[in-house]
Design a protein that fits this description.
Length: about 240
């Protein structure tokens, strides 16, 4: 619902909105589970449950001669995502563990180890510059800033001042919404940088780019903050 949205006369995600207008965009797209782990698993395996699989999209495209790459702002030890989806079979794999010295928060466990979109785009740029130029490319990217608590100290103040953790409360819903929109605006800028990288390295003109999400987010809609608990638009509606 942030595609095309304006806040105080400012476009929240102008780059993504422009893509939706010039490409194919589904107004009604939904996550099947509204939660990160099963959503990412299904995207990359075609299955609904994390059962043992012989091959995922990474294995299949490796076999077909693609140069495969997976880049994530998250630490995909979380839920054993990188193993279950066979991301580690990619020719290039990079997640928050590989840049822990630039992590956003102090924690080193998989649920708290995060890096910024800026760091990830830098590493993607390095990969694009050094990949085998004759091989087709499959690139999976996971940006993270719109996840709770929408307060990364590395976010820029685009829509509103960065949300402080202590500001998150039902009584402060309007400020929480602004903080979330500011995080979304930062992701939008990161997408713009990513597309420039793809253009610079001669990939974009021949690329199929799919932008979607693992779930939506309830911002105290019905007094609930988060996702993965209810089959409602706020938690299930995604861009596609």
């Amino acid at each position: 619902d942030v595609i095309g949205r304006r806040h105080k006369d400012q476009d929240v995600m102008p780059f993504l909105t422009g893509l939706a207008e010039q490409g194919a965009s589904a107004k009604y797209a939904y996550s099947h589970r509204g939660y990160t782990l099963p959503s990412i698993y299904t995207m990359l395996t075609g299955r609904h449950e994390p059962l043992d699989v012989e091959s995922t999209i990474f294995d299949d495209l490796n076999t077909l001669g693609y140069h495969t790459a997976a880049y994530s702002c998250s630490d995909w030890r979380y839920g054993d995502v990188k193993t279950l989806t066979h991301m580690v079979a990619a020719n290039r794999y990079f997640d928050a563990q590989d840049a822990r010295d630039e992590r956003i928060y102090d924690g080193d466990d998989p649920t708290h180890l995060l890096i910024s979109e800026k760091v990830l785009n830098r590493e993607i740029g390095t990969m694009l510059a050094t990949r085998p130029k004759d091989d087709p490319l499959f690139l999976f990217i996971n940006y993270e800033s719109t996840h709770y608590a929408y307060d990364s100290p590395q976010l820029e103040d685009i829509i509103a001042p960065r949300l402080a953790y202590w500001e998150i409360s039902r009584e402060n819903k309007d400020r929480v919404v602004e903080g979330y929109l500011n995080a979304a605006a930062n992701v939008d800028r990161a997408l713009g940088v990513l597309f420039e990288l793809l253009k610079t390295h001669g990939i974009l003109q021949d690329a199929l780019v799919i932008i979607t999400s693992d779930h939506g987010e309830s911002l105290y809609d019905g007094d609930f903050l988060g996702h993965g608990h209810r089959l409602i638009n706020e938690e299930m509606h995604i861009p596609f």
